[in-house]
Amino acid sequence: MAPISQALLHKLKNFVTTGLLLAFFVYLVFGAIIFHALESPTEEKMRAEFWEFKRNLSKKWQNSSQCFNSDESTPVVVLTQEDSRKRWGMDGALGFSGALLTTIGYGHFSPVTNAGKAFCVAYATLGIPLTALTVSAIAERMRNFSRFLAKKISEKRPQWNRKTVERSCIAGRVVVGLVVFFVIPTWIVQVAEDWTYGDSFYFVFISLSTVGFGDFVAGERIDREYPVNVVFYRVFILLWTGFGMAFLGMV
Amino acid sequence: MAPISQALLHKLKNFVTTGLLLAFFVYLVFGAIIFHALESPTEEKMRAEFWEFKRNLSKKWQNSSQCFNSDESTPVVVLTQEDSRKRWGMDGALGFSGALLTTIGYGHFSPVTNAGKAFCVAYATLGIPLTALTVSAIAERMRNFSRFLAKKISEKRPQWNRKTVERSCIAGRVVVGLVVFFVIPTWIVQVAEDWTYGDSFYFVFISLSTVGFGDFVAGERIDREYPVNVVFYRVFILLWTGFGMAFLGMV
């Protein structure tokens, strides 16, 4: 009876993992909708004020012969349009929710309204444990798949030393994981963002370690046409982050 | 013999925890020294360039009757001195190393040199597991202390139900932990930073969850005299973060 109950256990675990993944994605979208609803109006207002401020500044200084006093404490720089870009559309809100739940927290933007901050705390209190559970369930499935592979190989090649096969499978999954979650994403991000290879790897590392400085964030360039569909690219980033964290948890 | 070996095990664990804590602090200071050495010269250069840029801008526009064309794509704002503040002194480098090792990664500043980024990756690869080990060792000591307390109480009050005492101790450590690591730090940060209570709690939560957006960072205000010694305050922030994360790991 042992193999059957084992198979049943596997099925049950697959079922639980699928359920967790589903719950995670529903929770992610739910969060994005709320963040979008809470933050978007304030953002629109602030953007309007920014343009108003800019217009007034231009008007005021157009007829002034002396724009700046020589007081060194008020330096002046020219801003690009990027500083007034829209952050809290549904796509931005989804990216924010993902960064929050994985605790990466890039922080290149974050809620400014009190309601947004309060929701952020409540949402993360439930969501971070849910995400951790999902990630560790995926990690366990990945570990099991590697064990399953080792067993199959041992069955097909009974003359090979079982321990050696198992160890090779563990070494193999580390190498495959490093290629799939570090080398390939670095290459994809490098092409998509036009960063150097070093900067791309730095971004990959800082993201998967959940540090997330926000100095490099994928899918955020507006001065450049992406060579791939941006929505597809962002979904790839989200999946890569989740499974990559699971891989790190598995090692 | 059981009690003696138990006591020995406890001593050994205390020894290991102390060793880990020591190793963590040495590693933290080591990282800060390297980051300071790698990033500080570039920062000095960039600051000098910034002031030069500002001076040229003032000179150029002092004698110009029309400072801005009406092209709306080049808005202008006045920068405060904060934007050119020094980040990579030893104190800033220490704060950066702490945020990196705990994976909080506030990201209000991060390395810009290639050497700094490369060291960041290598340093975190070793340091994040070391920090995780240290934090979980502290968590275990905290859990053990709570168990020890439950045992002492049970010995002194044998008439009380043992299970009830144990459960009360668990509930007690959650309440004490919430007060020590959430309520009191929120109050201290609120007084020290002059933020609202809501913003202070939001900062405490976003830090302990290791999300770290960087929209609020303690000990970083330069427009305000701190009512406490800043070095002392920053050490408090570091200790609070570490032990607070251990508390969350314990729950």
The span between the termini of chain A is 32 Å
Could you tell me which chain pair has the largest interface and how many residues each side has? A-B, 57 and 57 residues
Number of helices, where a helix is a run of at least 4 consecutive DSSP H or I residues of chain A: 6
Report the portion of residues of chain A in β strands. under 5%
Q: Strand-and-helix sequence of chain A, N→C?
A: HEHHHHH
**CATH fold node name of chain A:** Helix Hairpins
Main beta-sheet strand count, sense and barrel state of chain A: none
Mean pLDDT of chain A: 85
Structural class of chain A: mainly alpha
CATH class of chain A equals Mainly Alpha
Query: Which overall shape of chain A is indicated by the principal axes computed on the Cα atoms?
Result: elongated
Number of domains of chain A: 1
User: What's the CATH architecture of chain A?
Assistant: Orthogonal Bundle
Uncertain stretches of chain A: 63-75
Rounded to an integer in angstroms, the radius of gyration calculated over CA atoms of chain A is 24 Å
The assembly state of the depicted protein chains is homodimer
Helix content of chain A: over 70%
Number of strands of chain A: 1
Transmembrane segments (chains A, B): 20-38, 92-109, 121-139, 170-189, 201-219, 231-250
GO molecular function (chains A, B): potassium channel activity
InterPro entries (chains A, B): 2pore_dom_K_chnl, 2pore_dom_K_chnl_TASK, K_chnl_dom
GO cellular component, one term (chains A, B): membrane
